[in-house]
Design brief:
Layout (H helix, E strand, L loop, with lengths): L27 H20 L3 H16 L3 H7 L7 E6 L10 H10 L12 E8 L1 H18 L9 H10 L2 H4 L3 E5 L6 E3 L40 E3 L5 H13 L25 E2 L31 H4 L7 E2 L2
Parallel strand pairs: 1-3, 4-5
Antiparallel strand pairs: 1-2, 6-7
Helix pairs in contact: 4-6, 5-6
Length: 324
């Protein structure tokens, strides 16, 4: 007879069960309602974009409308558009023959290159084109540097190579089509040379009142047709006129159009009779006489030991030696 088992004195622990919320029964009608909700939500999200998306789309349309250049849009339809290389000219007073810097770069490194001295100077700081055109341009610049090695002749100038390739026809030989834009007529507006040494003293003056390429109220640079220039190159050559506006409009963000003058305008030259007024000797590190001073130089002081203010030495500022 098998032995009896002893009864255990310990009480067995109750079985643990999870509390589950009974889910509603998914009847065919309920499935149809859920499907309709999903479809309605996806349709609403497509028809009612977010506020941020709306603002971005509006901003994109405004930007595209503002900078939609008809010439570029027409050229994009041209099957040869990928061959276009856009270069930008400087001031008309500045040619490869009249500018001593550009003349020196070309003649010093490419002495046997036939060139027209009246050809405009194209600034090497701004060049535009398709991907293929720009790769061809860069390859041509590097090849010319390896061929002529201007830097070993003491002429380390990228603008010399830039103008050489345009004037010599090497871009066309490489399959490119050079599109040269006059100052103020293209996407890039190069304004530095308007304040350069090649400009006659009689034609110097502010960007808004003299050159007519700046909005006198809103402050931005315009093309010759009055439209806003999309890209402005060499604005720093006009720092005395542009710095205050740039700081207020873009750094501090407190510019109010028309609230005050865009810059401190220099005093106008004084009319005088050379027979009754003679300039005093005046020389500084940048100018050798009163004749080379501009209106904005009225507060300059000559080099030691004289340390003579230009307003005192020069007749055109109201100074000088009065005779008769």
């Amino acid at each position: 007879m098998p032995p009896r088992r002893r009864a255990s004195l310990s009480t067995p622990s109750p079985r643990r069960t999870r509390c589950r919320t009974p889910s509603p029964r998914r009847t065919p009608r309920r499935r149809r309602l859920l499907l309709l909700r999903v479809v309605a939500a996806s349709t609403a999200s497509r028809r009612a974009p977010s506020l941020t998306h709306t603002r971005r789309a509006k901003s994109h349309r405004e930007t595209r409308r503002r900078f939609a250049w008809p010439d570029l849009k027409r050229r994009r339809r041209d099957p040869d558009h990928a061959k276009d290389l856009y270069v930008y000219e400087e001031n008309g007073h500045k040619t490869v023959g009249s500018c001593r810097w550009n003349r020196g770069w070309l003649k010093g490194c490419f002495p046997n290159m036939p060139s027209d001295p009246s050809a405009p100077v194209r600034c090497s700081g701004s060049t535009m084109g398709s991907r293929d055109a720009m790769l061809t341009y860069v390859d041509a610049m590097l090849a010319a540097s390896d061929e002529f090695m201007c830097h070993r002749k003491g002429i380390p100038s990228d603008q010399g190579y830039h103008n050489f390739l345009i004037l010599s026809g090497r871009h066309e030989a490489n399959g490119l089509r050079v599109v040269s834009n006059k100052r103020g007529e293209g996407v890039v507006h190069t304004i530095g040379a308007l304040n350069g040494g090649d400009v006659p003293m009689s034609e110097l003056g502010p960007l808004d009142t003299k050159w007519k390429i700046r909005d006198s109220v809103k402050g931005y640079i315009t093309n010759v047709d009055g439209s806003m220039s999309p890209v402005v190159h060499q604005w720093d050559r006009w720092a005395s006129e542009m710095s205050r506006w740039l700081d207020s409009a873009f750094v501090r963000d407190n510019f109010i159009p028309g609230e005050r003058e865009l810059f401190d305008r220099p005093p106008s030259f004084v009319e005088y009779d050379p027979a009754t007024c003679t300039d005093m000797p005046w020389k500084s590190a940048h100018r050798s006489s009163c004749a080379g001073l501009r209106a904005e130089h009225h507060d300059w002081v000559s080099s030691p030991p004289e340390r003579r203010p230009a307003k005192e030495a020069c007749c055109k500022f109201g100074g000088g030696i009065k005779t008769g």
